[in-house]
Amino acid sequence: MINKIKELEKLSRLLDPKESTREKWNSEVLEYSNTFINNLDTSKAFMQSKENGKAIYNLDIEEQAIELTSLLDSTTKNIDGVGINPASGGHMGYIPGGGLYPSALGDYIAAISNRYAGVFYAAPGAVRLENMIIKWMCRLMGYPDTAFGNLTSGGSIANLMALVTAREVRNLKARDFEKAVIYLTKQAHHSILKAIRISGLSEAQLRYIPLDDNLKLSAEHLEKAIVEDKENGLIPFYINASFGTTNTGTIDPLETIAEIAKEHKIWFHVDGAYGGFFKLVKELDSKFKGITEADSITLDPHKTLFLPYGTGAVLIKDKENLLKAYHCLADYMQDIIGKEDEISPADISAEQTKHFRGMRMWLPLKLFGLKPFRAALEEKLNLTKYFYDEIQKTPGFEVGPEPELSVAIFRYVPKDGDANEFNSALIEAIQNDGRIFLSSTNINNVFWIRIAVVQFRTHLEQVDLLLDIIKKYIDDTLTELN
Ligand SMILES: *Cc1c(COP(=O)(O)O)cnc(C)c1O
Q: pLDDT digits over 421-465, tens only?
């Protein structure tokens, strides 16, 4: 027995490499990351190939160990080298992500110490750190001290958490679902629809409120719909408003919606996954009027706080509501009861054991301080306005509403032929070039090209390059036609 154990120990100790091995691996990973970051200036924002990363299958899980060097080589080739490069300043499609360097270090630290950040008793310091960040976000949004929240894996889960909180707090039972009404617009993010399905609310009535000319929820139509629904014996339950739609960065009229929600006692949710952190730009303060009236807010640090993917946040105005929705006790947790002077993430979310994701957010915020974040967001707003103004100087270009945040839409209207087809070809050309990545969208059957300036590495240079690429394509196409 003892011999067997010792034999096993020899092998199992391989899982705990000695310092010299760790140092070797660290330096290889460091070299990989330096090469990756140094090459960002010249690497593309979008890369297509026939292979498209298929060779990663050659590294399926097997008995034998493989050298780190070959794993990193394959990562560079088969993972980093294909698809969208979210770390590139040329990424201006969808809502770009970030990838702040200190977040990588934060993840490293969190993984090394592996603190059990789900429960206060197990990791009081780690839970305090996460709660401190959550309270900072609550203060940033102008929420009272009663507010609290949870660091999620992203905005979709944050939206789901808000909806489930509302369902539980409003004591909505299965038998009520058919009568419950959820108000949103066609510009709401599709994660709201997912959340409705996941939370069991598929049978609820979805009321799509018409948009005004600026693609904002029409408060007038909202009120009318609510009154009608009440008259028909339905239960107006949930309003989803957007602070920055994904399509156009549009902000719904929060103040008016808040009044309507209050009058009719409807849960008011603001999806600020893309736009919320623009609160850091003082000039935008007035746009946030009414947000403090929201029962819940979604933020997404892995978007406008430039974190790498994997961190969203839900804020709930009254923390009791979070506990009402999520708190459960397990017998095996009896050691913990009464020992907590902080709320544990496990008590207010679906998660139990969880990633200590506070560290990846706290480290960059502390290392840089808030100033560069405010500046970067203001810079992105201005870059978007600059693009919006510049693109209109080229004859034939049409733009959407004046950008409120850092998303704008535009299209080329050719003298002859189908505009949708032309713009579809234009976006394909931009994507084939790959130095800048843009995506498109469809609004009322019109094909628009979108620019979303969110990557912290996007500066004037990249926006000018985009303008050049577009102009060259238009020039070449017009020459070809003539
Ligand atoms: C991105 C986004 C979401 C979804 O967030 P994920 O982090 O991608 O899960 C929700 N709402 C809006 C407005 C978004 O822009």
A: 999 999 999 999 999 999 999 998 999 999 999 999 999 999 999
- Is the beta carbon of 154 within 6 A of some atom in ligand 1? yes
The length of the chain is 482
Query: 194, 274, 454: which to mutate for ligand 1, most atoms within 8 A of CB?
Result: 274
Q: Is the pLDDT of residue 71 over 90?
A: yes
182 in contact with ligand 1, CB cutoff 6 A: no
User: Phi and psi (nearest 5°) for 152?
Assistant: -105, -175
Q: Is the CB of 237 under 6 A from ligand 1?
A: no
Predicted pLDDT of residue 478: 85
C-alpha angle with apex 231: 227 to 236, nearest 5 degrees?
55
Both structure tokens of 389: 């103004």
Ligand 1 lined by 281 (C-beta under 6 Å): no
